[in-house]
Amino acid sequence: MMIAEPWLLVFCAFGLLVALGTTSGLLNTRLSVSEPLACALAGIALGPVGLGLVHLDPGTSEQAATILREAARVALALAVTAAAIRLPQGWLSAHWRGLAVALGPGMLGMWLASTAVTSLTLGLPVVTCFLIGAAVAPTDPVLSAPILNGRLARWAMPRELINALNAESGMNDGLALPLVMLPILLLGHGPEDAGLEWVVHVLLWEVGCAATVGVVVGWLVRSGLLWAEARPDADRASLVTVALALSLATLAGVRLLGGDGILAAFVAGAVLNSGIPSEEIAERQERFNEAFGRFFDLPVMILFGAVIPWQDWAGLGWRGIAFAVGILLLRRLPVWLMLRRFMPWTRARPEALFGGWFGPIGAAALFYAMEIQDRTGLQTIWPVVSLAVGASILAHGITGTVFTRMFGHWQRRAFQAEPGE
């Protein structure tokens, strides 16, 4: 592992973030290239095939794997908190049925479809395929944010679809843990012992602990925020500061308890969101999304670009290409088409196609790949999962603006064609 000229690396990375921030989304809207894709390309330029400032191999170096895993964990905690803050107050309780379909059968379908694609294209052992399928199943809030925010999204997409994709990408990153842990436990235990450990330790303790702590911590912070704002001598609190501290404190606290800190961060953010005065939500959310998205989430994409395992990808040959294409087309799109009648935001086929395509694979997959590698020692996980992430960053990065505009034009034609309009 080597990082040459650390300060030059910092300058290049955060200089890019300054440029993205000052141009205010022009890269995405004018050049049809997403900011995460631009950051990944910058990471490639900083890595071994570019300037050679970074030489990290998470597939073989435990220290490099730890850096990538913890960077992805923090980025996810911040991103899911931002996703929770973006939701209108009361949205989760009002739409829990449709969300349960997306997170239940939808998540299970994406897991099984990804597993099948991995098995058919790469021919890996069954349990390994299930592990890879679980790692790439959750949608990524870091890559979803550019699609769901900004002027173009507000013009083109129905508000309910934006909220649904926000909520799904925020929640399924933490809820993917049971899917990841079940094959891991089956590798080291018999079916009965693995099943018992999965129910007691994973579902009841890790997931249950996360939800409980998230509710309690979010309620305490919300109560403190409301109490302070009710006092005439108190200054107006900064939502960015409060939510950032809440996200990282929740993540760290739940990790110390052995729970799922990513899920807890989303729950805490959702509870906090219910305490923001409604007249201040729009202004605060806009500042919050920009600060979290550009400054905290995008650096993990730079890191990913710098650690891409090019030789391992080349070693996969045509099977790797078939895997990447299969994951992009079959992991999510058919599942959303089958379930669209049960989710109110995808009743129309174009809405299901759009929502089914934009379920990107990113930081969550990187995190779970490193977690699986650490727990199992399997060296095949990182090259395959990173290939899925790279394919998603490229495909969704160059289609985001184009497809969103096309979807917006369809929305207007459909609205004008309605009787009585």
Question: What does this 3D model show about the protein?
Answer:
The chain crosses the membrane at residues 35-54, 74-91, 111-137, 202-225, 237-256, 291-310, 316-339, 351-369, 381-403. This protein is mainly α and 421 residues long. It has one domain (31-417): Up-down Bundle (Na+/H+ antiporter like fold), CATH 1.20.1530.20. It is built from 22 helices and 2 strands. The chain has helices spanning 6-23, 26-30, 35-46, 62-86, 91-94, 96-103, 105-122, 126-136, 141-148, 151-156, 159-175, 177-188, 191-230, 239-257, 261-273, 281-297, 299-306, 310-330, 333-339, 349-357, 363-376, 381-417, and strands at 2-3, 54-55. A two-stranded antiparallel ribbon has the order 1-2. It is globular and about 65 Å long.
Topology:
Blueprint (H helix, E strand, L loop, with lengths): L1 E2 L2 H18 L2 H5 L4 H12 L7 E2 L6 H25 L4 H4 L1 H8 L1 H18 L3 H11 L4 H8 L2 H6 L2 H17 L1 H12 L2 H40 L8 H19 L3 H13 L7 H17 L1 H8 L3 H21 L2 H7 L9 H9 L5 H14 L4 H37 L4
Antiparallel strand pairs: 1-2
- Please identify, by name, the CATH architecture: Up-down Bundle
Radius of gyration: 21 Å
Number of helices: 22
What would CATH call the class? Mainly Alpha
| Helix content class | over 70%
Query: What best-fitting shape do the alpha-carbon axes yield?
Result: globular
Are there runs of 5+ residues with pLDDT below 50, and where? none
**Strand order across the largest sheet:** 1-2
Give the strand content: under 5%
| Ends distance | 63 Å
Major sheet details: 2 strands, antiparallel
Summing up helix and strand content along with how strands pair, one would put the structural category as mainly alpha
Number of strands: 2
What string gives the helices and strands in order? EHHHEHHHHHHHHHHHHHHHHHHH
Count of domains: 1
Membrane topology: Multi-pass membrane protein
Pfam family, one: Na_H_Exchanger
Organism: Teichococcus coralli
InterPro entries: Cation/H_exchanger_TM, Na+/H+_antiporter_fungi, Na+/solute_symporter_sf
